[in-house]
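2.7 Reproducibility. Because tokenized structures are sensitive to small changes in the input, we list the exact sequence used for ABC-type multidrug transport system, ATPase component, including any N-terminal residues retained from the expression construct. No trimming or masking was applied before prediction.
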Amino acid sequence: MESIISVQGLMKTYASGLHALKNINLEIRRGEIFALLGPNGAGKTTLISIICGIVTPTSGKVLANGHDIQRDYRSARTEIGLVPQELTTDAFETVWATVSFSRGLFGKAPNPAYVEKVLKDLSLWDKRDSKIMTLSGGMKRRVMIAKALSHEPLILFLDEPTAGVDVALRRDMWEMVRKLRASGVTIILTTHYIEEAEEMADRIGVISKGELILVEEKTALMTKLGKKQLTLNLHDKLGGIPPDLADPRLTLSAAGTELIYTFDSHDERTDIPSLLKRLTDHGITYKDLHTRQSSLEDIFVSLVKERT
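Resulting structure tokens (single pass, no recycling of outputs):
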């Protein structure tokens, strides 16, 4: 699939000596939703800032829809819309004025019909004459997205788009992002909400300590690294696992009322029948059992731990 963003050998070292990015190579496909995950200080914002032309890299190359972000800055930047995490806009302007003005900053001719469409798509039309200062936090975030879309970019960066937003509005935002992707916009988002990436992303990138440690299709990532857990709710509390049942995959809950067996669901030899028989032989009975697939959060935590 064709790449719309190409990052090649990207490095960033600050004057303090901090190596914020270390040889980042990344291809983002046209029309996908790409989620960039990483702990605080991992380099997510630095990477986005360089791609958007806000920060100058120490070395490396970035192309946005074929335009070099340094040598052809104006053309490259026109391809990109950025929604920063901070809500920064003119509090005394109306919604209509601030979105229209943002379009003009990119040299686009006035287009009231397009601005109207953007505001309607973002459920802002009835607020078009309201001053920004009168809006709720969720509505202000929608205005930030409208500003970022005002010049008709093909690429949209969302930096923590639902930070501080309640659950209901977060789901509305997810639906809005899907509609944007369906209209042909490529979406790159950073998020601390793992379920956000799990819900929306086509591919996941994980960055830690300035290194891109993994880029993978979401479904393939969860298949490759995801584990399943079999939890047995015991009839009687156990003080410990009998020595001859010892297995690194088998653990006892702190309360002694559950046995948890972790296994690879794609391994033909899960040994579950053998485990259940051995438990019965020891007189250990259970009243219920259930399985749980590892979430993306489990996978993310284990990947980052490996690098610490």
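The longest helix spans residues 167-182.
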